[in-house]
Design a protein that fits this description.
Blueprint: E1 2-3, H1 6-18, H2 23-41, E2 49-53, H3 57-71, E3 76-80, H4 89-101, E4 104-107, H5 111-115, E5 126-130, H6 142-153, E6 159-163, E7 187-191, H7 204-207, E8 209-213, H8 219-225, E9 227-231, H9 235-241, E10 256-260, H10 267-279, E11 284-290, H11 291-300, E12 305-309, E13 329-332, H12 340-352, E14 357-359, H13 362-367, H14 371-375, E15 381-383, H15 387-394, H16 398-403, H17 405-415, E16 419-422, E17 428-430, E18 436-438, H18 451-464, H19 469-491, H20 498-513
Parallel strand pairs: 2-3, 2-5, 3-4, 5-6, 6-7, 7-8, 9-18, 10-11, 10-13, 11-12, 13-14, 14-15, 15-16
Antiparallel strand pairs: 1-9, 16-17, 17-18
Helix pairs in contact: 2-3, 3-4, 10-11, 10-18, 10-20, 18-19, 19-20
Length: about 525
């Protein structure tokens, strides 16, 4: 899916309604999608929810969400910045639904009411910002501004979810109309399509993790109104791409992954990568690791097959025959370290590997000196560098990489014709045809040791299972972020580890496939 301007989304809504879908039906789709996404993030556990609603359709989406959650047995309150008699049109339909469902309302329609509104909060609430949507062209004013400042003031009391976009954000430019009066969201559930403003990295500070809520627009209409060269993965695309097991599936039919790496003190990297491949659906995983590390990996993941590899003078893997029989995808690099022995092994992989090849971590460190061998590898290749590794590949500094991530990605694609993801907040992806993607989900808690190893395992698993090469990285990074968001809600940003992310991965896949 491409990105959309505010006007393009208006035209898309208008065309959909002209084709027989009513405004109430569209709002119902939005409310259902919002409730489903919150249901996922809270791990299917009812949590106290306070929904702040404004006067327009954004408020109507919030009212519909409240009705659904209340019928599911959640403790829900709606705090409205306008009086009941001021709610009109389609939102009025969902106001009645929410009342009939038993939702509790607070009518906070003056500035003074928001000054001490904190005393009404339920413990550890999810706070939903449904105050302003794309119809707003200026900074929040009046009582809406008071509600926004309230959310800013109590930000550390609970998780904040914005409906469509944070109130006060310019949807087309990605900046706040007034930085002192804009919601700082942890999650943004954007409706129908990603806004052009989300392409700007600066928007991440306001939006947090972004999920595109599918409103079931016609595919041709989405193509018609989408703009620009950048694409984003959503739930609809992920459902169409993620392999679904047949009734006749067995371990030999779901992709066999070979992970090459590990070294003394770094066995966790290959263990996590191998485990991630299993949890992404691979039927078999083999780990080739130094003899001195094999027992540790064997104990850490009993489900994988471990090859005790030859060890060189540095305690790392030496150049040796590769166990390639029956392998559908190869990952090299996690925990491998960079030295003469591992460089020789990498060259051998370039020659012998005839299946999709993923280079991560120390394989990337070794790569710069062996670019010719890489270029002649007759297979799909995937690179997963973080900014430091990208800097090494391109003879730049990490600061230069981060200063212009788009230009850096283009440069990398010309030097290393492969599928490349530049990791970090708003990971950017380029495939060999030149098509580009940006990932919108994920959170700062994922900035922890081992997170990249898990992503590398996901990438290799999807490639080994036969996902279309151009879709492997967009889907892998999306899944990684989805699992990271669930892990954050389970453990909190500061305390989550890569293993928490790994544990959340199957649930993220279930969210997409329903099984």
């Amino acid at each position: 899916m491409r990105f959309f301007s505010t006007q393009a989304l208006r035209n898309l809504d208008k065309e959909t309604i002209q084709n027989g879908i009513s405004g109430i039906q569209l709002m119902q789709r939005a409310a259902t999608g919002l409730a489903e996404e919150l249901y996922f993030l809270t791990d299917q556990t009812p949590s106290p929810v306070t929904i702040l609603t404004g006067p327009g359709n954004n408020g109507g989406d919030g009212l519909g969400m409240a009705a659904i959650l209340k019928r599911m047995g959640w403790p829900v309150e709606v705090w409205s910045v306008i009086r009941r008699d001021q709610i009109q049109g389609d939102p009025l339909h969902f106001l009645v639904e929410a009342e009939e469902a038993g939702v509790r309302f607070r009518w906070l329609d003056d500035d003074a009411a928001w000054e001490d509104a904190e005393r009404f909060l339920m413990p550890n609430p999810v706070l939903v910002d449904a105050l302003l949507g794309t119809g707003s062209r200026d900074e929040p004013r009046g009582v809406i501004a008071s509600a926004v400042r309230f959310l800013r003031r109590i930000r550390n009391r609970g998780v904040i979810v914005s409906v469509d976009l944070p109130s006060g954000l310019d949807a087309d430019q990605g900046h706040a109309h007034n930085p002192d009066c804009c919601v700082l969201a942890d999650f943004t559930f954007t409706l129908g399509g990603a806004k052009n403003g989300f392409l700007q990295d600066k928007s991440a500070g306001w939006c947090g993790s972004i999920t595109v809520v599918d409103l079931n627009f016609e595919p041709e209409a989405l193509k018609k109104y989408g703009e620009g060269d950048w694409h984003v993965m959503g739930l609809r695309e992920a459902r169409n791409i993620l392999p679904c097991r047949k009734v006749s599936a067995h371990k030999g039919s779901m992709g066999h992954v070979l992970v090459i790496g590990g070294s003394p003190g770094m066995t966790g990297a290959v263990s996590m990568a191998g485990n991630a491949a299993l949890r992404t659906g691979s039927g078999l995983v083999t780990v080739l690791t130094p003899n001195t590390c094999s027992t540790a990996v064997d104990v850490a993941i009993p489900e994988v097959m471990v090859y005790a590899g030859r060890t060189g003078q540095f305690g790392t893997l030496n150049n040796q025959p590769l166990p390639m029989r029956g392998i559908n995808g190869v990952l090299i690099g996690p925990g491998m370290r960079a030295d003469y022995d591992t460089s020789d092994l990498l060259q051998r992989v370039f020659v012998e590997c005839k299946v999709p090849l993923v280079l991560d971590a120390d394989a990337l460190t070794n790569l710069k000196g062996y670019r010719d061998g890489f270029l002649h590898t007759p297979t799909e290749k995937y690179l997963t560098p973080h900014p430091g590794e990208m800097a090494n590949l391109l003879d730049m500094t990490p600061a230069q990489v981060q200063a212009d991530r788009v230009k850096t990605l283009q440069k990398a694609g010309k030097r290393y014709p492969a599928h490349i993801v530049l990791k970090g907040s708003r990971s950017r992806i380029r495939i060999p045809t030149g098509r580009t993607w940006v990932n919108l989900n994920g959170n700062p808690g994922m900035g922890t040791g081992g997170s990249g190893d898990i992503l590398a395992g996901i990438v290799t698993s999807l490639a080994a299972q036969g996902v279309l090469p151009e879709m492997v990285l967009p889907l892998a990074v999306f899944l990684h972020g989805k699992a990271g968001d669930l892990a954050m809600m389970r453990k909190g940003q500061a305390g989550m580890t890569a293993m928490d992310l790994l544990d959340a991965l199957p649930k993220a896949i279930q969210r997409i496939q329903g099984r």
